[in-house]
Amino acid sequence: MADTAAREFFTTRTVAEALAAFRPGRRTRTESVPLHLALRRVPGEPVTAPHPLPGFPRSTVDGYAVRAADTYGVSEGLPGYLDVTGAVSMGAEPQTAVTPGRAIAMPTGGVIPPGADAVVMIEYTAEVMPGTIEVVRPVAPGEGIVRADEDAGAGDEIIGRGRPLRPQDLGMLAAAGVTSVTVHAKPVVTIFSTGDEVVPAGTPALKPGQVRDATAAALAALVADAGGEPVFGGIMPDDPGPLEKALRAALPASDVIVISAGSSVGTRDETANAVARLGEPGIWCHGLAIKPGKPTLLAECAGVPVIGLPGNPRSALVVFRMVGAPVVRLVGGCTVPPPEPSTRARLSRDLASATGRLDVVQVRVSDGVAVPVFGVSALLSVLTTADGYIVIPAEATGLDAGSEVNVVLYA
Amino acid sequence: MADTAAREFFTTRTVAEALAAFRPGRRTRTESVPLHLALRRVPGEPVTAPHPLPGFPRSTVDGYAVRAADTYGVSEGLPGYLDVTGAVSMGAEPQTAVTPGRAIAMPTGGVIPPGADAVVMIEYTAEVMPGTIEVVRPVAPGEGIVRADEDAGAGDEIIGRGRPLRPQDLGMLAAAGVTSVTVHAKPVVTIFSTGDEVVPAGTPALKPGQVRDATAAALAALVADAGGEPVFGGIMPDDPGPLEKALRAALPASDVIVISAGSSVGTRDETANAVARLGEPGIWCHGLAIKPGKPTLLAECAGVPVIGLPGNPRSALVVFRMVGAPVVRLVGGCTVPPPEPSTRARLSRDLASATGRLDVVQVRVSDGVAVPVFGVSALLSVLTTADGYIVIPAEATGLDAGSEVNVVLYA
Questions:
Q1: Residue at A377 is within a domain
Q2: Domain end: A307, A331, A355, which one?
Q3: What's the whole-model pTM score?
């Protein structure tokens, strides 16, 4: 965390500052999960190979295990001849060794017999009489062979900590016989919605002025994408008393708290007041130099990061993606975030932007052209219509039509 | 499907042909799932808004609801004056209408009262005496207001079929009061491993020549990523009889069958023989112009796509990603696949490649440079070391050092 002296109540910060300095120290405990439930989970410690992999020298081709020296100088015009003294079966130990002038038939993946130091591909051999092959190409020692420790040596790190497990990582763990992994527990992210106008999504008929809670459903999905476990704290009225009480009750069981704050200035201030009373060190920033999303609050109370989002769904989702998801990942031990889908495109029109503020502009992309989707920040349809977004950096005054932009794509 | 006459036993196809023409018609049934379980699920039908959204005209700012005409011509130097006759509360119906010369205080998100056609931001007003404000900026009709149907009109399609649901889509559905969605059932993908040498990942101590089943664990993860439900069919010996029997038993309960075939030519042929006897129309290709991954088999038997993968884990995973995952997505109703993470990078060295064959090269990426990770195709560590892969197109003879390449990144 940055210097706590700077945690004034109405400090406005840039997104870059938030990403660099609002890095709560909280980490979830680790737990053991079976391999088939470990996809995208974050290893809490490195995993090492308990023994060499594959564990024995294997043939990489169908052919004959030989002593490489026996093939030196052979060619199509001047083949070498070897006696075939046996055949290796898959999954079985070779019964005989390869001695000078002799060869043993090998399936791909079979165990290299003692005495052999290369495998000649079957394509470069012919059985000229029963038990005898001719070889028309020489092989070098090691050719056609995977060494016993070529995939991993005993004790080699096969999985590092902090990077979510990918499909191939699970394969490597399975190969090593590691059937459970120590991973960080998913951070429990308690999501509160606030607002006298907000009613549950399941409300069939709305009274005038009521809106259903769209933000909680979308935030829960973004939390899951960031490796968290979303828990719904409830819809709170625009009243700091009950909110503070609910936040306080949620603290012990939460790794992160997210509040989609009321949308008017007054209720936002009430949210800030409630958060400020939760515990030390308290509010880190109240106001983020981003559009949409200025009324964002970042705090850490009694060891729990608290993220106060703007009241309208679209701004809330934009900000959570930018600064909330990284906090959830961090608390969950993820130090190597997975890459995001993106594409380069040409901007269809000029975009204005104020300096000192990061602008997030939703776009549709087709045929390499990014077309901004406009609409007031309250509109969710702007997000559902968009294929992704572009970021206009804080130092820019805008972007020209035709300029090449990086579009972060929604997956 | 392409012409079935072309389904010869050893037909080799290009990856482009496979993606364009191996498109089994099977689709999973649809089912209803609650919204909180619908992330990334594939809608089986479009969803329309049951009523306009937000459903009432809302203020987008804190300020005063006015008749726009009452503000025309006002300025800092010549403010207009309006009587404030009330205040709208969040989530409640306005108690009074706005009449000429009058204004009503509005919170962001509140219901626009009858008679008002704009909202003046509070920043451009001042309460000059109790009950009277001055207004220093004019507003146009519609300013500061979201129309009742601006996010969606009644009957508007808010979610299309075929695209996996994203976080913002769940938000939009919640806003519309749609708490369950009709989605395609996850395709059941039965995964078979074959090979006399293959033993379960949980085998603590290996006998000489044995390897643990790495492919099944990784394939299950790739299937899940493609929206499928992996089911493990078991490890089959290199014997076509039991394999055919097991495949036949799995057919009725499978939407897709994936076999990581034996690695030697003989056992691959046995797999093909077993698949060929499963049902019509049968094998579509046996051999794919891709490296690694040539010995790939694509078939459709009794309505079930069957994908035979090369025996070594790395080739199997590369091929499944390229041609298997698209089939799983398709069967699961996904017609708009989510974007993949990728990045542009410069190649660190020359790469040779044979024409007529697509080459998949694993790379590490740092500082914009893609460095190929080499190793025989049996090595899983090549995949776990890599950050992603580049594809050398079939028509290329290679890539020069320094050329710009598109790296598909592993997430």
A1: yes
A2: A331
A3: 0.94
DSSP reduced 3-state for B183: strand
Environment class of B160 (CB within 10 Å of its CB; exposed 0-12, middle 13-18, buried 19+)? middle
- Helical H segments across A257-369, by residue range: 265-276, 313-319, 325-331
Classify the complex by whether its ipTM is higher than 0.90, answering yes or no. Answer: yes
Q: In this complex, do B89 and A264 lie within 8 Å of one another by their Cβ atoms? A: no
List the CATH number of the domain containing B360. 2.40.340.10
Neighbouring CB atoms inside 10 A of B66's CB total: 30
When pLDDT is cut at 50, 70 and 90, the band that residue B10 belongs to is low
One-letter amino acid for residue A173 of the chain = L
- Are A380 and B172 within 8 A, CB to CB? yes
CA atoms within 13 A on the CB side of A330: 16
B52-79 tens-digit pLDDT: 999 999 999 999 999 999 999 999 999 9
Total domains present in chain A: 4
Q: Are residues A35 and A164 in the same domain?
A: yes
The domain containing residue A365 runs over which residues? 342-409
Residues B264, A109 contacting (CB under 8 angstroms): yes
Q: What is d(CA B169, CA A262) in angstroms, rounded to the nearest whole number?
A: 22
Work out the angle between the directed axes of helices B214-225 and A167-175 (0-180°, nearest 10). 160
Question: Are residues A167 and A36 part of one domain?
Answer: yes
Q: Chain B partners of A175 at a C-beta cutoff of 8 Å? A: 201, 211-212, 214, 313, 380
**Which of A123, A146, A169 is where one domain is finished?**
A146
CA distance B223 to B16: 21
- Cβ B265–A62 below 8 Å, yes or no? yes
In a domain, residue A141? The reply is: yes
Q: Name chain A contacts of B179, Cβ cutoff 8 Å.
A: 201-202
In angstroms, the Cα distances linking B393 to A226, B39, B112, B309, B399 are 34, 34, 59, 21, 10
The answer to the question of residue B25 being in a domain is: no
CB contact under 8 A, A151 and B110: no
Q: Are residues B235 and B201 in the same domain?
A: yes
**Is residue A294 within 8 Å of A288, Cβ to Cβ?**
yes
- For residues A62 and A41, state if they share a domain: no
The pLDDT, as a whole number, for residue A400 is 96
State both tokens at A228: 């968290």
**Residues B284-340 pLDDT 10s:** 999 999 999 989 999 999 999 999 999 889 999 999 999 999 999 999 999 999 999
Check residue B263 and give its pLDDT: 66
- The first and second tokens of residue A401, run together, are 């039509």
Whether B54 contacts B150, CB under 8 Å: yes
- Interface A-B, measured as beta-carbon pairs within 8 A, has a size of 313
What does the pLDDT look like over A192-241, one tens digit per residue?
A: 999 999 999 999 999 999 999 999 999 999 999 999 999 999 999 988 89
Residue type, A344: R
Instruction: Tell me, yes or no, whether B350 and B224 share the same domain.
Output: no
Residue contact A217–B152, C-beta within 8 A: no
